[in-house]
Amino acid sequence: MDETDVVLDLSGLKCPLPVLRTRKALRRLAAGRILVVTCTDPLAMIDIPNLVREEGARLDAAERQGEHLRFRIVPSAKPPHS
After folding, report:
1. Beta carbons within 10 angstroms of residue 82's beta carbon
2. How far apart are CA 63 and CA 70, in angstroms?
């Protein structure tokens, strides 16, 4: 992790909360920052990449470590869709 990373730990939350909170954090992310999301909901492996695509961001990494899923998201330089 880097000092510009914003870490969001959503462990224990169930669908749809991980994707909703990720969207909120992504839309508030300051320029030049990276969002790192950790969660345990297996559906997030489908939902978060879809959210990233919808928001015009880039999924830099998605990995599974035991029951934890970790996503590294790079926001778009342009404003998100409303």
Report:
1. 4
2. 5
Residues contacting 18, CB < 8 A, separation 6+: 10, 37, 39, 41, 44, 47, 48
Alpha-helical runs (H) found in 1-82: 17-28, 44-54
For residue 66, the 8-state DSSP code is: T
Q: What is the side-by-side strand order in the sheet with 34-39? A: 5-10, 34-39, 68-74, 58-65
Cis before 16? omega within 30? yes
Name the catalytic one among 6, 13, 15, 20.
15
Model confidence pLDDT, tens digit, residues 7-53 = 999 999 999 999 999 999 999 998 889 999 999 999 999 999 999 99
The answer to whether residue 15 is catalytic is yes
